[in-house]
Every structure is written in C-alpha cells, then in structure tokens.
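Students often ask why inverse folding is considered easier than folding. One informal answer: many sequences map to the same fold, so there is more than one right answer. In these notes we will look at a single instance of the problem. The structure comes first.
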C-alpha cells in the first residue's frame, strides 16, 4: 500500500492508522487498525464515520491484508464482514463489491492493493468535482447551513457538503455557515466546527432546534447536506434531522441541496422506503460521552428510539450536487440520471 495521509486515516508504510473521531475535538488519538475485527469495532463505535470514509477505510484494509498474503478465501470473508459493519451507507457496499470483483478476478495481490489505492484517489477527486459544482451555485455573502459532518473527517478528500462550503470560502465568497450541532452524537458541534476552525471558515454552532427560527428570520440562504444513500428516484438517507431541515426549508423557501459522490447512489434501491436505517444504542440518547467525559441525564428506566438516519423525499430537494454534475427534478425520470 502506498504511503498516504487524509483528514481521517493514514498509512505510514507499516501501520494503518485511523483518527479516533469519538475523542475530537479535544484529543487527536490515532488508532492502529491491523485486522478486520478491529476495523469493524472502529466503524461501529464511529471512531471513523461518514459514508465515503468508511468505504475507503475498509478497501484500504483489504489492500493491506492482500499485501500481507491472505488467501483469496480469507480476503473474501474479510470483505463480507466489513461490508456488514454498518447498514445504511451504500458507499461501504459499493466499494467492497468493487474490491471483491478484483479479489475474485486476480491472482496477483498487487492488483488488489492497487484497486484500494485507486478508490482512495478517486474519492479525493470526486470530492474536488462536487466542491467545484456546488460552490458555483453560492453567491457572495450568503449564509449557509449544514448538518452532521461531511468534510475531511467523512471522506478521503475535502468533503461533500462541507467541501462545497469550503470551496466557496476558498473562492473568497465571504460566506458564513450555521453548523447544526447534530444530536445525539454531535458530529456538527464537535467535528464540523473543528474542521471549520482548521479551515478558517466563519461559522456559528447552533442547536438543531434553532434552524427554524433562523430560516424564519431570513438568516439562511441555502442548506447543504451529505448523504449515506441516494435511491434511484432521488430520495435519500442522511443523518437523523436532515428530513426536518428539508421540511423547514420547503416551508421557508430556502434552497436545499444534497451533495454526494456517485458511490452514494444505489441504483438497486428504487425509493427511500427501501433504505435500511441503522438503529443505535440508547446510551447515545440518554446522555453524552466523549473527550469531555461521560454522563447520563435520563432515568435508567426510560426506553429510547435512536435511528441514526432519516429519509428525505426527492420532492423536498432543490438539486442533487454530484461529482457528475448538478441535477434537478427534471433529470430524475432519465435512466441513470446520476451519471450525467
Ligand atoms: O453516523 P455518521 O456520522 O456516519 O453519519 C454521517 C452522515 O450522515 C453524513 O452526512 C454522510 O455520511 C455523508 S458524509 C460525506
């Protein structure tokens, strides 16, 4: 595997290391990832998260294991275990399926490692294209809003929605971004805010329930979010709370965009109802845990409901910003519209 460093993972020639996002923004700990069970645990506890990033991390580990001499059968088993680590983000499945095709077809492990490198490089390039397409929509001086984390911690590159926002900032468009804190795991308040600080993007963190008031006061010009899976009809799954933002945006006539690479599209999935939604543990709802410590505020006896994602219907989307271009509702009837 070639040496590389992204915002959330690196390979130093010997060890595959993953930045532990559960401890950000206060501690930057890199976790060693040497085998499949370690990576599954790292993915499930969201030490690495974000649809593109988990797909790339899983592919990179397969590339490293191929170099270490695992047999075809062992690699295919490893691929199946990694593919099942989280259910909603289709990038993981798409990337693993691509790796499996190469594992099955090739008798030379260097092709498998090369494929992982190609997927890594491709994700960086897809992010760049999305950022360019999306930034071209933003006018100087606009106030934007984003949800969850979709930057260099969620991809191998500049990001999806946060990539668009960052590119507009790099183009000196004098933008400002409202960062939804994103309960329950605070991917906005901890991770997007940290990336905005590092990238110099002007921002303020808000609690998720403040977005409506800002829209009513005309303080939000556009909303950009990422996605974990886009169905063929344009419905999409993203971090819980995205659907409420889309409904609010529709009521207040604020343009609402989903930004994702083509690896997030699931052509087999005809509509959002069919997207599997991950349910997570009640601890995440009953309290918080991170670099700041742990506490529980809810009664032990209370039960919880904790879906990690929701589905936004296509009718609420102004445009789908993909690496292949910017698509609107008029494009949806076209066969394989996401390929441009
Ligand atoms: O549970 P997470 O933190 O993995 O959820 C991440 C999101 O919902 C992101 O918006 C999505 O993966 C797109 S990231 C480029």
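Output (designed amino acids):
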């Amino acid at each position: 595997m070639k040496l590389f460093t992204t915002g959330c993972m690196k390979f130093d020639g010997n060890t595959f290391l993953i930045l532990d996002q559960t401890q950000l923004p206060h501690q930057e700990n890199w976790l060693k990832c040497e085998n499949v069970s370690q990576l599954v645990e790292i993915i499930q506890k969201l030490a690495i998260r974000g649809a593109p990033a988990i797909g790339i991390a899983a592919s990179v580990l397969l590339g490293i294991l191929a170099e270490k001499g695992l047999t075809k059968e062992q690699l295919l088993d490893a691929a199946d275990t990694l593919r099942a680590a989280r259910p909603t983000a289709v990038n993981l499945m798409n990337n693993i399926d691509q790796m499996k095709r190469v594992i099955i077809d090739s008798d030379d492990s260097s092709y498998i490692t090369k494929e992982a490198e190609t997927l890594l490089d491709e994700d960086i390039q897809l992010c760049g294209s999305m950022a360019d397409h999306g930034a071209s929509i933003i006018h100087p001086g606009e106030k934007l809003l984003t949800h969850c984390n979709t930057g260099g911690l969620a991809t191998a590159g500049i990001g999806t929605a946060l990539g668009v926002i960052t590119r507009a900032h790099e183009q000196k468009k004098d933008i400002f971004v409202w960062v939804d804190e994103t309960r329950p795991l605070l991917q906005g308040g901890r991770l997007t805010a940290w990336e905005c600080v590092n990238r110099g993007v002007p921002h303020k963190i808000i609690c998720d329930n403040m977005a409506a008031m800002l829209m009513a006061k005309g303080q939000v010009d556009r909303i950009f979010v990422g996605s974990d899976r886009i169905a063929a009809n344009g419905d999409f799954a993203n971090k819980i709370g995205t659907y409420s933002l889309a409904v609010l945006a529709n009521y207040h006539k604020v343009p609402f965009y989903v930004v994702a690479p083509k690896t997030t599209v699931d052509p087999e999935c005809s509509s959002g109802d069919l997207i599997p939604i991950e349910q997570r543990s009640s601890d995440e709802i009953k309290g918080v845990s991170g670099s700041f410590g742990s506490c529980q505020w809810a009664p032990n006896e209370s039960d919880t409901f904790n879906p990690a994602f929701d589905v936004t219907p296509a009718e609420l989307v102004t445009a789908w910003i993909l690496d292949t271009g910017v698509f609107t509702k008029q494009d949806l009837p076209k066969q394989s519209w996401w390929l441009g």
